[in-house]
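User: Show me sequence and structure for the first protein, then do the same for the second.

Assistant: Starting with the first protein.
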Amino acid sequence: MTKAICWNCGVFKSGSFIPCPNCNADPTTEDERLISLFLTDHYHDEAALNALHVQIRSGGKKYQITDDLREEMRPALRMVSRMIGDGKNNDTVANQKQEKIKPQSNKFLINLIRIALLVFIPPFVSTFAWSLYGNITLFADQLIPFGKIFGQSFYFIVDFIGGIIFAYCMFWTAFKLGPKKSLEGILFPISAFIIDAYLPQIRFSFLELANFSYLYAAFAGSLLVIFSAWTSKLKVLSPIEILRRRKSLQRKESDKPVDNLKKEELIVNNKGLIKTGIDNRENETAQRLVLQSIDKYVAGDIDGSLQDAENGLALDKRLVVANFIIGFIKHAKEDYQGAKEALDIAINSGIDISDKFYYDAYAYRGFCKNAFEDSEGAAEDFSKALELIPDEIQIIRARGEARFESKDYMGSSKDLEVVYKSFPDDIDNLHRLSYCKFVTLDYEGAIEIYYKLLDLDKEREVLTLSNLSKAFYNLDNFDEALEYIDKARRLDPNNRKILAEFHKIRKKHFKDWNDKMSEEEDS
């Protein structure tokens, strides 16, 4: 634990930047934080700290911070400012270290090369794959006369599958070659290219309607892949890279792990525990690299920290403590596969280290699993994180959404209910919670949420009215069911599903009314 002295009154405290328990002095300016960091056991031994404690308590503040030491301490201060959320735009030292803008001509040349690759390589790969597939089916048809057995439908199926292969290979190659963070920027031109490849022949076929071409079957197959790529439906037809990028782009800030840990204090306070995983190793170079990695991580040199940690592990695989650092950094860089692999090793090592490290490791690994659509695995990791640090609302929310994706609606409902109590106007959470309550037959609870959504979400009012009607219908309250489905019908008169639901409920309502009248007459 960091032993520090309050810069204002001289009382000992357990952290550099926490408010003083005696005078409540909270270091907020750069000079106050610099002095607070200086008055710790990182820069003084116990005797020197005691002497400073006596001096400050007696009213004297005889300490000096040299300019060289100030420059050495600034990286740690920038780390503190980033985590507290201030000083992002006022850090002149950080601004001076920004990378120089590359010459515009170089960027233009790189963009030209990328465009050339996207224009020429995907069509070549797709055409080659379709040609290979065509030769294989032709050879198979010669061995076994499928065309004679199944008739003309066999060739339509062959061309339909060929169209799927053509479009799939186009998207797969384009996303392998294109910018790593682009989605629509690749989807749109490749979709247009695929459609344009068919259009000349399709137009010609339309002019000669009698000559129906098998090309329509291939065109339909390609359109199916385009639909899957844009909507993420029929996921088996969409390259996994598209699904991953869409998932990453749609992830909200609220879905990310809570950075409840001040990482530099966490590591400083646990250096004794960390060193137990490093000491007594034969390879001193590996030890030095891992400890150096931790120091760089505290100072905010993320790239240098990652490089040192990986080099240290390459020399001595037993230094598993470095995997925590590697996992945290790779998650921040959106290298979810690398982060998951490192965190797997860190978690399974079971080394004796602070629970907060394991909490963050489970939380980050859960979000990595979410990126790979392993919702069940993500929910398990979020549960393990909450066992270590309960009541973290954003992790509870993440677990609720992971359970929702894995169709554990009962468990999801419990988590989303907790989120609802803290954030009663969160529209996305309300929609998920109402769905969970409906499918678990808690219609009264669903109705309560639907009423709230009618006030908050006007864009999806028709959907909410329709769901509200269904909930009342399942409670045999046909008066309310008819009232709300009629409101939905009036707002969206061309919606066939709503019209069908309206006629179904109206018949049921009329029958129910007749039954009640008959019972009254009999009585």
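Switching to the second protein now.
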Amino acid sequence: MKLNEKLALAGTTTRRIWALTTPYFSSDEKWRARALLAGIVVLNLLAVYVLVLLNEWNRGFYDALEKRNQPVFWAELWRFTYLAFGFIVVAVYRFYLTQLLELRWREWMTGRYLRRWLGDQAFYRMELARFTAPAASPDNPDQRIQEDLNLFTTYSVSLSMGLLNAVVTLASFVGILWTLSGSFHFEFAGDKWYIPGFMVWAAVAYCLAGSLITHFIGRPQIPLNFHQQRLEADFRHHMVRVREYSEAIALDRGEPVERQHLDLRFSRVVGNYLALIRAQKNLIWFNTFFAQAATVFPMIVAAPRFFGGAIQLGELMQIASAFDRVQASLSWFLDNYQTIAAWKATTDRLTSFEQNLRQQSAPRDLQVAGAAGELAAQDVTIALPDGAQLLHGVDVKVQPGDTVLVQGPSGSGKSTLLRTLSGIWPYARGRVGQPPDLMCIPQLPYFPEGSLRSALAYPQPADAYTDEQLRSALMDAQLPGFAARLDEEEAWAQKLSGGERQRLAIARVLLKRPRFVLADEPTSALDAPTEALVYRALLDRVKESGGALVSVAHGSALDALHSRHWRFEPATGGTARWRLAT
């Protein structure tokens, strides 16, 4: 990669990090956030100031030891006591405020991303894109919100405060080291050369060489950390799916296949982690050598002046302490390289997630507007995620009193038509007019874990309905055995049979009394007598509300219960696969 390309990439990355970082500090919580940040900065400055005082203490204390001056020794020891106590207090409250800022920042970012992910069906469109264009859709949004946000806030605060501390420490100690180190002179080509502040230049050269070597050795960790987070999330996601579909897997005796899938995913986790360990091992080889050499390096450089009598033991120890602080400040990049690599990987995952969320919030081609008394589609074209066109130029109306049955071959797009009429299908264009009280019954209804009354009232709160209303809906949906179990708490999606789930979904509609209902094969798992009873209850409730029903069904058992029929027929011309005969 050329230098200008690297600079452009660095600029883009910086802007994305800035876009992730700044919203919290300009949000409605900005004053608390800024106060916490200011408090942490002040405590970091105090910590560095105490370290400067401790560096000065080194000189007096070790000089007293060398001269066997007992009164000064005890006085310096007492001075060390209150300096150490002050440093402890600063360290404790710096830790407390840092953790508090990380928690508040994560709380705010989590709430923000949850609102955006769940808003405007972004989560639904992302999931569709994940199976059709994996490269364009972020993997595991749940992991990015739950784990990556936590890592991002933790690393951002710790790294930024660590860098601030390193800069302030360097500014505080470089002058001390410059004064103490004196000048170094040597002869070259018959001339005498003097290098003032030699220890400072030695520290700079030492750390610059170490940082360059560290970056060269450690840079493979950035992509490895990125892939590790993705692979860990994939492994966890598949285990969640096994738990969700435990009954179906058990009935199919699918345990060996699932074990193979999990073993494959975990082997990828282990393989990438081994590569990461090897990369970290190479870096630790150098870091350990660098840290050990830094312990004796200032002593070796200052030893000639000490043995020549130019400095005393106290001054030698002060030089060593100041060099250690300067070297540690200049080695901040080296010491934090692994953390920076993990932070960079986390930031890349969040910036791609942020970019995808912005794409999902872009205006859609399908315009959904309110309509007072009817459900209508005007010049609607429906496509699949891969771009294949299902229907073109659909114009339909559903008015109060209509009962419409949608039929056609499997896979023709009946369910997709209902998704478009409900306004959630992202691969459609045209205009849909919806009445305000429209309700849908999906093929796979969702039931939250908890009490039965909460599952029945979802997504409204359970206390919005009386026990009598809840029991009446269950009775009308042919679930009399559940009327006395309203306060039972279960994982209802796994607890109920297919037919019970469908009847519970219909019970929701009977409870909420919408005028217009879109039902996607709502009784496919029921026997004929039960299906007739439940469907008649549904039709009666819709007619009582003065509304209409649009159903998708395969069989002919429901034909007599509907007054109109829409049929998917093969298209004879154009780009669409089907035409809708109404």
